[in-house]
Amino acid sequence: MKWRHKKFTFMVIPDANNSVMRFQLSAVILVIGLIMTVAILAASITAFLLYRGNSGEIGELKQQLSSATGDYEEIIDHKDEHIDELQTDLTDLSEQAKKINIRMQDIKGLESQLKEMVGIETGDSVKTKADGETTSADTPNEDEQFSMDGGTGGEELPVTPEEMGLLIERTRNDFLSLTEQIEHMKPELEQTKVAVVKQQKLLAVTPTIWPTDSRRITSTFGIRKDPFTHRATYHAGLDIGGVTGDPIYAAADGTVIDAGRSDSHGNNVLISHANGLRTHYSHMSKILTRIGTKVRKGDIIGELGSTGRSTGPHLHYEVMINGEHVDPRPYLKATRRSN
């Protein structure tokens, strides 16, 4: 087409003092320029219309994003609070584990005291103080024990993840240790219970108490100078001084096999216990039992006196094992009230 070869001249007239500027453009370039200008205008109008149409949605999306951001921040805050609560609970749990461990040691101490009370041998791990309290190698002393009831202070520092991890591990180990202790303690306590019952039965028939309220020994067991002949003789028992009429107690459970009077022993009672043991009570002012009576440890069987071959009010007390006289002193371990 011929119009493509046509040229158009454009003149630019500045102010009056400057020369006129002329330039020519071919028809093709001019058409292309117009097309690009129209395209740019069309694209701008389209973009404007699209933005205007989606501006509401963009605003809503911004609001949703802002709301979601706030929710996430709130969740993070709650998470931090929850972590603090868990850390506090873990600290409390750790303290409880320590206190439970102390109580477990107390139980072991009580078990050892119980064994000692009935004469069962105990290990060296738990020791008894003079006032009856117990100490153990695993039990903190008074300086190491603590209570949250007292005053506290000091600088508060944040807990590091490493420190919290160590606390978790220590608490877990504490509770595992407590579980093991409880599992070991169950059969041990059962064995202790059986041993205590057995020992109680044995103690009941063993003459372990003083047969009088008096503790004044006037003559010991063994060879001595006879108060009447002043010659060396064998004294088969123990003389305990007292006041006429003082009660005389059975030293153990048993059966009265003799209750009467003789020239040497005066009014006297013979009691048979288990395991070949017998006890003999002489010089009574009064007999308060009879042959065949079943007596319990601590029962009153007579009153102290000076009958028979005696120089004054006292109890002549004998202990025999399978017919052989033995020293009663090792058996005198308790009072009538603590048998």
TrEMBL record:
Positions of region (Disordered): 125-157
Parts forming coiled coils: 76-103
Alphabetical UniProt keywords: Coiled coil, Hydrolase, Membrane, Transmembrane, Transmembrane helix
Regions crossing the membrane: 27-51
MF-aspect GO terms: metalloendopeptidase activity
Span of domain M23ase beta-sheet core: 234-328
Entry annotated with the keyword Transport: no
Protein name, UniProt field: Murein DD-endopeptidase MepM/ murein hydrolase activator NlpD
Source organism of this protein record: Cohnella lupini
